[in-house]
Input
Amino acid sequence: VQLQASGGGSVQAGGTLRLSCAFSGGAFSSYALGWYRQAPGKQRDLVATITPGGSTAYADSVKGRFTISKDNAANTLYLQMNSLKTDDTAVYFCNARDWRGSIWGQGTLVTVSS
Output
């Protein structure tokens, strides 16, 4: 299984970005999926998750602003990020997990300026 994240960039506070994560080499619909982020000098933190059945969960810091979704036909995971804040600046990683273990994508940088 391979994950390829894209869609990062630079945006001003209050702006929007949509991250994508292309999944290949496995049964996409059977994996629990998530987005994580790592700011400079900090640990990698959970942002949002989505189960194979489509149930979602979010970190408190992004609730109401970010939306995780997936397209099983396109084997793609998304993260819609609205009302971005400078604190959202980080490298964002997508993750796929099943009973065999956890796979990480390479990360995409999101920079939010004031």
